[in-house]
Amino acid sequence: MARESKPKCPCGSGKPYEDCCGPLLAGAPAPDARALMRSRYTAFVKEDKDYLLRTWHESTRPKELDFEPLHWRSLKIEAFMPLSETTARVK
Ligand SMILES: [Zn+2]
């Protein structure tokens, strides 16, 4: 009998939160840019300001985060293009 008791991750991966973005929001490093992107979306859904600010590049990071109005209603990753070991383009 299959059971689906774990809550799904808000990022839409279909995986349980604790096996997806959960560890990243808890402080684990993102394995790649796509995972980082997903985790940032999840942080946005959960209104985890600290995580969003922590993973924001200094040059573009706002001093304060305002969750109203909500700009992100859903996440759909259309393309994922690794550029190097540490950078990737996500569209
Ligand atoms: Zn996730």
Model description:
With 91 residues, this protein is an alpha+beta fold. The chain has one domain. 25% of the residues lie in helices and 7% in strands. It is built from three helices and two strands; from the N terminus they run H-H-H-E-E. The chain has helices at residues 22-25, 33-45, 49-54; strands at 80-82, 88-90. It has a two-stranded antiparallel sheet. A hairpin with a 5-residue loop joins strand 1 and strand 2 (88-90). The N and C termini lie far apart (38 Å). The mean pLDDT is 80. Bound molecules: zinc ion (ZN). Zinc ion is lined by residues 9, 11, 13, 20-21, 38, 42.
Distinctive features:
91 residues, alpha+beta, 25% helix, 7% strand, 2 strands, binds zinc ion
How are the SSEs ordered, and which strands pair?
Elements: H1 22-25, H2 33-45, H3 49-54, E1 80-82, E2 88-90
Antiparallel strand pairs: 1-2
